[in-house]
Amino acid sequence: MAPDASDAGSRPASGSISEVGWLALLLAVLAVSWGSILARLCDSPSLTIGLYRLLFATLMVAPWGIPAMRAPRVRSAGLLAALGAGVMLALHFATWITSLAYTSIASSTLLVSVQPVFSIVLSGSLLRERAGARTWLGTLLAFAGVALVAGADRQAGEGRWLGDLLALLGALAAAAYFVIGRAARKEMPFPAWLLAVNLSAMLLAGLLALLAGSPIVPTTRGDLPWLLLMALVPHVIGHGLLNWSVRRLRAYVVNLAILGEPILASLYAVFIFREIPGPAFYAGALLIGAGVVMAVAAESRREPLPADL
Fold this sequence. Notes:
With 309 residues, this protein is mainly α. The chain has helices spanning 14-32, 35-41, 46-69, 76-99, 105-112, 115-127, 133-156, 160-183, 190-212, 223-246, 251-257, 260-272, 279-300.
C-alpha cells in the first residue's frame, strides 16, 4: 500500500522511489497487455464487457479502498476529480472495447496507445509538466508508427476505419484519465482514489449499457472467468500500478510506456487467434518501439518527481 503522509519521515530517497516507479510501470504494461485478448475471448456485447470488468474490479479494490475513504485526507475536491476520472475511464472502455469488434487487436491496441500525444498536450496545459525535446521527438516517432498502421487499415476497408476512430477516442479518454489522476494525487489516499474512480466508472458504464440496450448480465456463463481475469490482471493489477506510477513519474512518461502494450498484445493475438498483422504493422511497431525507448530514456535522466501519497 502506498505510504500515508504520516510516513513522510520514513520514506526512501527519491532515487529509490524512482526505481520502484519504473519497475511498477514495467509490471503494469505486462498486465494491461492482456486486456484486448481477454475481451476478444468474451461473447457478450462490448458495453456489457466493460460494465463487468469495472464491477468486478470495484469489488476487488473495495476491501482496501473503503477504510481509506474514512481518512481525513479525503477531500471534496478529490471526490469530484475521481468522478471526472471515472467518467473518462468508462468512456475509454466503452470506445476501445467496441473498437475490437471492427478492427484487429493489433490495430486497436496500437491506436489506443496514441494517448501519449494527447497526454503531453494535457499535461502541459493542466499540470505545467513540459516535455523535453527528446521526449517530443520520441513521441512524434511513435505517432508516425501509429499513423502508418492506421493508413494501412483505411485502405483495407471493411469498416476498420470505425474501429480505428473508436480506438483513438479511447486514447483521448485514457490520457485525460491519467492526467486527472496526476493532478488529484494530493486530494485523497491512493486506495480511496482507486475505489472512487472504479465505482463512478462502473455506474456510468451501467447507464451507458442501459441506454444502448445492451444486456446488463453476460450473455453466456463462459464469459465469467474471462471477465474476472480481465478485472484482476489488466485492471486491478495493471491499471492499479499505472495509477501508482503516475503519482511518482510524469503523466506523459506513464502514457509513453503504455505504448509497449500493443506490441505484446499483437504477439499474443498471433498465437491465440491466428491474427497475423500485415507488413505495415511491423514497420509501425518498430517506429513505436524506437520512440518509446528514446522518450523514456530521456525522461529517466531527469530529476524524479516526489512521491505523493
